[in-house]
Amino acid sequence: MENKTTVTEFILLGLSNDPKTQIFLFLLFLVIYLFSLVGNIAIMVVIRADSHLHTPMYFLLFHLSFADICYSSVTVPNMLMKILEEHRTISFNGCIAQMFFFLLSVCAEVFILSAMAYDRYTAICDPLRYVKIMRKAICVQLVSAAWTIGFFYALLNTVLVLRLHFCGHNQISHFSCELPALLQLSCTETLTSQVVRLICAVTLASSAFLLTLISYIHIISTILRIRSAEGRRKAFSTCSSHLIVVGLFYLTGFFQYTKPSSISSVILDEIFSIQYSILTPMLNPIIYSLKNKEMKTALRKIFRKFRFLK
User: Fold this and answer.
1) Inter-residue contact 269 to 175 (CB < 8 Å)
2) Quick check: is 298 in a domain?
């Protein structure tokens, strides 16, 4: 495969050129990223350490936290460095690598979220067969499939980008090397890449979203038949939290990767990217775990053991 690329680096224009705003954004995103990193690592450690959490739901949550760490770490540390730098450059190879791992992690997260929805559907709608359906081998296969689909999705789009010709204009109006922003810089025809991006996004994202949506339609239908008002309230509370995060993640990411270039807006693109690459990983520890009684109980046990050892 011949690579006719003449551009050796890209310039990331970032979020702002105002020094005061840059400092504010640096501190804000640093705090959010550290909270996300520590929170998701804590989830993974607690799930590994507490045998009571060795269940399908927490197995999937473990991998969701890992995916959150991956795709936020692909973009945010580099963004933090570039915010305060005068020359915000990134090498061509570095830009392509960032795009590949971002697409891999985000696509894997989409299908892990769907697997979590299916897990809850099975637990609530078919509890008698839950243990048989969601056995360990099935959970491993679901997670493996999520990362495999993500790998091939990222590889396909990366190969298509490497076939393009970048010949001069190298300023990316963004804080990271996302696929839509790179396609806008190509000197050659990008119709094939645009069509593949649209087909993949619609096919993969829609199928995963429909699986999640159908699962929750059945879940809500089952919950409404629960006689206990307290039981309904608890179930709805859990479902609504999950659906809020899933909805924000899907809507912003899906719009970003399927909208026509004619309605592209730098500010809008950056807001959407911040939502699904920075804020969503932070929401995971809060909504999925820190409000979870079993998770809080496991955390308290670990803290007590730690104090005892000291």
Assistant:
1) no
2) yes
Q: 84 pLDDT exceeds 50?
A: yes
C-beta separation of 111 from 208 below 8 A: yes
- Condensed to tens digits (0 to 9), the pLDDT of residues 193-204 reads 778 777 877 788
Residue 1 counted as domain residue: no
pTM as predicted: 0.84
Residues spanned by the domain of 80: 9-309
Backbone φ and ψ of 279, nearest 5°: -80, -40
- In 10 A of CB 102, how many CB atoms? 22
Amino acid in the structure at residue 196: V
Q: How many structural domains comprise the chain? A: 1
Alpha-carbon distance of 24 to 204, in angstroms, equals 37
| CA dist., res. 25 & res. 254, Å (int) | 25
Q: What is the phi/psi pair of residue 247, to 5°?
A: -60, -45
Task: List the end-to-end C-alpha distance of the chain, in Å, as a whole number.
Answer: 59
Pick from 217, 246, 234: nearest CA to 291: 234
